[in-house]
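Translate structure to sequence.
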């Protein structure tokens, strides 16, 4: 069974940092394209990052570019999302998803029935 589990969320003041993890089981993340999404209370889910396999790079939405950085640790089968200079508008539930065949449409993993998707971790940015 392909599973993703996010962790690392919490409450942080504006300007602070968090590092989220997206740990995979049942498959090797290095063969999959990774998408990160978030959903703020009362709003629709939005994509903000799409990571290609290997060293092919990552696309970021303008809203997070320069503040968020994604990385992979294939040995730990985990993807990390370092979030710096957090803003109140970054508040939401953060999800990762992985798929072997959907492509990155810019910074968004193409919409579909992903091979794996996590349950989310909550991030609250508040003073």
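Result:
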């Amino acid at each position: 069974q392909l599973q993703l589990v996010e962790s690392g969320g919490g409450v942080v003041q504006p300007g602070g940092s968090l590092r989220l993890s997206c740990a995979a089981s049942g498959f090797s993340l290095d063969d999959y394209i990774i998408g990160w999404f978030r959903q703020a209370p009362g709003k629709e889910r939005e994509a903000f990052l799409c990571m290609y396999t290997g060293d092919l790079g990552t696309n970021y939405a303008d809203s997070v570019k320069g503040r968020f950085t994604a990385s992979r640790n294939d040995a730990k089968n985990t993807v990390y999302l370092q979030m710096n200079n957090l803003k109140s508008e970054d508040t939401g539930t953060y999800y990762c998803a992985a798929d072997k065949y959907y492509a990155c449409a810019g910074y968004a993993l193409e919409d579909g029935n992903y091979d794996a998707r996590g349950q989310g971790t909550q991030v609250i940015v508040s003073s």
